[in-house]
Amino acid sequence: MKALAVVPSFREEEVIGETVASLGNLAMVERVIVIDDASGDLTARRAREAGATVVVNGRNLGKGGSLNRVLAALRFDVLLLIDGDLGPYASQAELLLDPVLEGKADLSIASFGAVTGKGGLGLAKGLGRAGIKRLTGRVMETPLSGQRAMTWEAFDAVRPFARGFGMEVAMTVDAVRAGLRVIEVPVRMSHRETGRDLAGFAHRGRQFGDILLALASRTREGRG
């Protein structure tokens, strides 16, 4: 088996080419698809030049909406989700793919090391971790990590993805509730962190709200 790598991206023209090239060099990746979420820059062009199949949204759908739109028409054995801003660190995706391709896990999640720059206050991450623990009993080191590999069966169990920034937390809750083998894999990945400025705090505020909504919906529905 080989994996389909899907890279949801928004305004990543400076690094998307290196991300695609890094994924394309992995023997276990059969194809790379980049979803350009109506970036309005050179993201799509740079991704094509690096060898990716590119899908461009007519309007901004967000990460979950973009993936739901594109993946609905595809079939694969293993799905790899990678953020567009990883650049050369995307090669670390092989660590996520190994346990899934070897049948040792249904869903593997990248566990990043400590943030080296000035990030946020950890409120969104703390909410995600607390919510997952409350709903499933699992304690996740990196509940918001978007770097994930999963089998078709796992994908089928957790779709459709939640919209907005609650996608990863919702996916983890749904996967654990479905009885899937969910593991975290230490990686040496790094990507752009939002700073402690007005734009950064606004981003984290939206993230916190989306995570809260995703957790609330799963509390009400008892999904899984």
* Uncertain regions spanning at least 5 consecutive residues: none
Number of E-state strands = 7
Shape, per Cα inertia axes = globular
Structural class: alpha/beta
CATH arch. level architecture: Alpha-Beta Complex
- Characterize the largest beta sheet: strand count, sense, and whether it forms a barrel: 7 strands, mixed
CATH class: Alpha Beta
Number of domains: 1
Report helical residue fraction.
40-55%
Order of helices and strands: EHEHEHEHEHEHHEH
> Mean pLDDT, nearest integer?
91
Radius of gyration (CA) equals 16 Å
Strand neighbour order, sheet with most strands: 3-2-1-4-6-5-7
List the total number of helices: 8
Q: What is the CATH topology assignment?
A: Spore Coat Polysaccharide Biosynthesis Protein SpsA, Chain A
Name some characteristics of this structure.
single chain, 224 residues, alpha/beta, Spore Coat Polysaccharide Biosynthesis Protein SpsA, Chain A, 8 helices, 7 strands
Précis, in short:
The chain has helices at 16-24, 43-49, 62-71, 93-101, 123-136, 152-158, 167-177, 198-221; strands at residues 3-9, 29-36, 53-56, 78-81, 107-111, 148-151, 182-186. With 224 residues, it is α/β, with parallel strands linked by helices.
What does this entry look like structurally?
With 224 residues, this protein is of the alpha/beta class. It has a single domain, classed as Spore Coat Polysaccharide Biosynthesis Protein SpsA, Chain A. The protein has eight helices and seven strands; from the N terminus they run βαβαβαβαβαβααβα. Strand 1 (3-9), helix 1 and strand 2 (29-36) form a beta-alpha-beta unit. The mean pLDDT is 91.
